[in-house]
Design a protein that fits this description.
Helix 2 packs antiparallel against helix 3, helix 3 runs antiparallel to helix 4 and helix 4 runs parallel beside helix 6. The chain is built from seven helices and seven strands; from the N terminus they run H-H-H-E-H-E-H-E-H-E-E-H-E-E. It is 52% helix and 18% strand.
Length: 200
Amino acid sequence: SRLRAANLESANQLLKQQIHPHFLFNALSMLKSLYKTDVKAGEAYLSHLVNFLRASLAEPQSRVSSLQDEVELCHDYVEMQKIRFEDALICRIDIPESVRLRGAVPPFSVQSLIENAIKHNEVTEASPLDIKVFYEDGRIHVENNLQVRAYVDSHSGKGLINLMERYKILASEEVIIRQDTRIFSVSIKVLSHEDSDHRG
């Protein structure tokens, strides 16, 4: 059982390490562009990026993050994207404080779902992308209007697969995906810190 736990932990850490490199490349490219065109926006973007990276480096061995920390991380990520897309992006996060304070999720899980929605959909002033993050029946739901991009880069799609694998490793819970002609929705179970303990 100890070997199994060690293998699961190694797999979890490897999956966590796959989250950031592509995001960081895009963020630095965006920052460079902003400083050429709008220094004030560049400074605001940099401030949120610093907060985001600080959270990324905190407790690197932690299997789960408090939902409160994840929401704060999402706030910085969303503000960065709003600087990029302006009025073309709408994102509302509505999770009760009591749930945020007692709940936990895998690090960067909610953020990666917001990122996934932005990557896969058109985000324009004519057709804004509307993302809703809310709590219902013990799960966090990330829902967006469906306006699929004609072209999605080769890195897209891996984030959702990564998250599904991490949930299996941490708590044997499923990530639920729903889609119709108008809406794409993903929901994840709110965990407790005890849920992340490996049972062997």
